[in-house]
Amino acid sequence: MKYAVVGLGAVGSIIGGFIAQTGENIVLIGKKNQIERIKKYGIKIDDVEIKKNNMILTERFSYLSDVDVVFVCVKSQDTENVARSINKHLKDKALIVSLQNGVRNASILEKITGVKTLSGIILFNAVYNKAGDVSLTMRGGILLEYNRDRKDMIIEIHKLLKKAGFRVKLIEDINAALWSKLVLNLQIAVTALTGQTIKESIGNKTSRELIIATIEEGIQITRGSGIKLSALPYVDPNRMIWVLKTFGFLSPIISSYVLGLKKEARNSMWQSLSRGKSTEIDYINGEIVKLAKQNGLQAPINTKLVELIKEVEKEHSMKRFEPYELKKILKNG
What we know:
Blueprint: E1 3-6, H1 10-21, E2 26-29, H2 32-41, E3 43-45, E4 48-50, E5 55-58, E6 69-72, H3 79-86, E7 95-98, H4 105-113, E8 117-122, E9 125-130, E10 133-138, E11 142-145, H5 151-163, E12 168-171, H6 175-185, H7 188-194, H8 198-203, H9 205-224, H10 237-247, H11 251-259, H12 268-274, H13 285-294, H14 300-315, H15 323-332
Parallel strand pairs: 1-2, 1-6, 2-5, 3-10, 6-7, 7-8, 11-12
Antiparallel strand pairs: 3-4, 8-11, 9-10
Helix pairs in contact: 3-4, 6-9, 7-9, 7-12, 7-14, 9-10, 9-13, 13-14
């Protein structure tokens, strides 16, 4: 089978880079500056330098015309535009795998392209340093949706990703896992606003309390809306709350030991704000706010977090809140 990655941010670079390292040819589609730099230097993941030998690097979606599997790794706010861009270039029997945050990307991609689309969940953390240069800052695998109608293709994808060094688990009912990952991700708005690294945020008493409160509200809203959450490998909403409450200021040490969490690990929302880019706030915390409104529930913490992130986006500023300041703002609504 022939493979492609669309979107060469942190996740796309890691997926594409490690697949290329197996000797498999892969089409990598990204922005002009990304393509130019990777053509010159290859992809660097931590200390691993991956040469461009097996990479077909391009900005053009027409290169998808003979590709069997397309990994989509763009931000959720770019999904519709990407779906329209790739639409006329895809094979009828192609398969799209969405490796994105949020719970709706696969359905959007399939609706616009008419091509079967499956969801995948990334459980590792990565930091985008610059085009083609990323750091893997927390261990974790990939959850991949299993579909009986595409059984043979999925088995081949599973084999390839394992060969590339990823821990991969196939699951049939991925919806509950997607919502669990979303609820877990609610806390990234907190650290995006405080500017803390992940370790700093869970080591600080005040920001730790905010993270717990934000995730607990997400659990309450999903439960009150009849949405099932499933346990995720290594870390999920309930397990994270238990760790933070049980181990307190020792949580960074536990996370380092269990998850390989590095001190420089930062979340994707902070990375977007730091580069003056729009964030996925509408597709993470905003999803909980929307769900609450649809079911007559209240989500005051996540509602305020959405407002604050949008203010920072609008101002294109690096405004940051001390944890105690943010706690006061969220408390007062």
